[in-house]
Design goal:
CATH topology of the largest domain: Rossmann fold
Strand content: 15-25%
Strand order of the largest sheet: 1-6-5-2-4-3
CATH superfamily of the largest domain: P-loop containing nucleotide triphosphate hydrolases
Helix content: 25-40%
Radius of gyration: 23 Å
Number of strands: 10
CATH class of the largest domain: Alpha Beta
């Protein structure tokens, strides 16, 4: 869930204040923002926020400050005042009660507001205490059913393109025998191509080797497939970006993930670069 208010974009360096329920993913969120280029401060004393923002005012990097119930001097009203004072976007992370209960049980951590009471009591108390923050936040992110990668994508969509970046495309090869990548947004099956695995001298090689690449390229079905695949993607990629998506994963699979998918992934990477997209390659199963 993403409840976003109509807060106008800031004309100065982006400043985010992250808060929310204990166990809702603060640490993962700050790591994701750090990867996006934010200067991150975790569990920061509320009384020092003004000094921190003043000291970093001339830095180029945007700032993300994490404050939750662990933080010294934590107070919802003071956080709201600080966000308003510095024109900062307030990001509130939350999860449903059953998910939080499960997370605290699995990690065996104590809830910061339930030192001598059941976890459920601490969750309820914190929900009530932080309600004004959730109601006022610029962005409310529900992490109940999110993996760390899902949360990273959500934050990238919200805050990555705000700095004028183009969408980053990860093009991944994989083997169907090892399972379809869960993080894939688009999956393409190329097991219809002739398989170099059955050629004795090609079997120990990979799609990064010239002989394997030539073999795959010489399959009469390969060139028409590539043309049609690129024709399909060309109008889709800008639409994904317009929808606020700044991180897209395209997975290309063959049987074992060593030959056909690896070569095709490398060729698609070159095409994406020609189209002006920042792209990275990942060969998940090439070493298996």
């Amino acid at each position: 869930m993403n409840d976003s208010s109509a807060t106008p974009p800031s004309s100065h360096r982006p400043t985010l204040i992250l808060t929310g329920l204990s166990g809702a993913g603060m640490t993962s969120a700050l790591k994701a923002l750090e990867d996006l280029g934010y200067e991150v401060f975790d569990n920061f004393p509320l009384s020092l926020i003004d000094s921190l923002i003043k000291e970093t005012a001339h830095d180029a990097a945007p700032v993300a400050i994490g404050i939750d119930a662990r933080s010294r001097g934590f107070d919802p009203d003071a956080i709201l005042a600080a966000a308003k004072r510095h024109n900062a976007e307030l990001v509130f992370l939350w999860s449903d009660e059953s998910t939080l209960q499960k997370r605290f049980t699995e990690t065996r951590r104590r809830h910061p507001m339930a030192k001598d009471r059941p976890v459920s009591a601490g969750i309820k108390r914190e929900q009530e205490w932080l309600h004004p923050l959730r109601a006022t936040a610029s962005h409310v992110i529900d992490t109940s059913d999110m993996s760390a990668q899902d949360l990273r994508r959500q934050l990238t969509s919200l805050f990555g393109l705000a700095r004028g970046e183009r969408m980053t495309v990860t093009i991944m090869s994989f083997g169907f025998k090892y399972g379809v990548p869960r993080e894939a947004d688009i999956v393409m099956d190329i097991r219809f191509l002739a398989n170099p695995h059955w050629i004795k001298e090609l079997r120990p090689q990979t799609g990064l080797d010239k002989d394997v690449g030539d073999y795959v390229r010489n399959d009469p079905a390969w060139a028409p497939f590539m043309q049609n695949f690129q024709t399909l993607l060309a109008p889709l990629l800008p639409r994904y970006q317009q929808e606020g998506k700044s991180y897209l994963t395209i997975a290309i699979g063959c049987t074992g993930g060593r030959h056909r998918s690896v070569f095709t992934t490398e060729q698609m990477h070159d095409w994406l670069e020609q189209q002006g997209y920042s792209s990275t390659t990942l060969h998940r199963d090439i070493g298996r």
